[in-house]
């Protein structure tokens, strides 16, 4: 019980236990984290991480104070200091520094001469360690950041694909269109064109316009399915087709053989799409459509007071016309959308009848007029026919796929496991809070709390070699008022504890004391100067 009640023995035990626990904690935290470049990442909210760091720092600071008697005992044994002698003020400052770990008291004690200086330096080392741990803690707090990471969760099997009608050939009644120039479902087509459909999604990428099934209702990390890809391209051909304003309401054009001898008058309609890639087979009494779809597009706008390039041709009665040669390359794709990023692989081509129906959709009047209106600002703001052709190509492809999908395509239901989309599905999204801290800050903090603690714990072990030194150290670590009482009890009628500290501080400067051990007992000799 004698040893267990001693603060020195308690400091030895708590020092070694803490050293082992800190080492285990660092190993566990290191294994839990992942090094990404120059950062360390943990799947933990940054607030909890920094709270754990703060608690660790506070515990280490408290343990440093608790270990102080054991550390001083070890240093007395290592330096073979059995006695303390000097002025009462010197010893008082040493005692005060050991108890309070005050920077000012420690600094004063470090500059004093005598055998107390080495002990004051040890106390100062512990104090510097505490401040260094706090600075490393602060550095980690400043540099650590929290991020929300989107990660894949549970896989939900689902038939997520587009079911394209098989019979899309030209006839009066068909699964795709009522006739060659009419939408079977204009309301649905407009929703798809505006990208507000609940079942379809239009995706504009650099490589073309995609039609996909709408994403799952649940927030998903990734989803997959089949789709249709249109790769549009348009170029101005007014000069090539000899488009000129002649007389009256005549602004004629006549294209060469390379453009299928397409001809006409731009003033007959505001906009028109003349599909030139359809071939009629009289023997089989059906139309064959080519891939890509080719068309000559006629567009007219009122004139703005800007300078148009030569491909915009002025008409006799005002306005400007332009001819575009456009084509759309079509294919079926397999798509995977991951966190808003689309990855696509080719699956094949549309059938001949489906290709024909797509060409019909490209020339549908209502959607074409909307397309022409949507890109009109490009024509009037730039007057550049190439920029206008590029803008029109994207909008025209979007209108084409909207018209085609309104009658020829439907989205498979989720979870039925039927149709072309069997095996597709989506992955639920899981939001994980993560903490990122610079590797340098983590290493500095780990080194600062580990190595000094281990060194001080080793110093504590030396205190077990001479238990008589414990009495001297426990005197040093005794509350300061008891020291004043020991020094002044022979010189004052009143109890020194009742005197003010300022009065005692002035009186203690006149005392020379010698503290030593004799036969295992502490002997204090004082002399008034």
From TrEMBL:
It comes from the Eukaryota. The chain crosses the membrane at residues 12-32, 44-77, 119-142, 442-464. Keywords: Membrane, Transmembrane, Transmembrane helix. This is Uncharacterized protein. It comes from Rhizophagus irregularis.
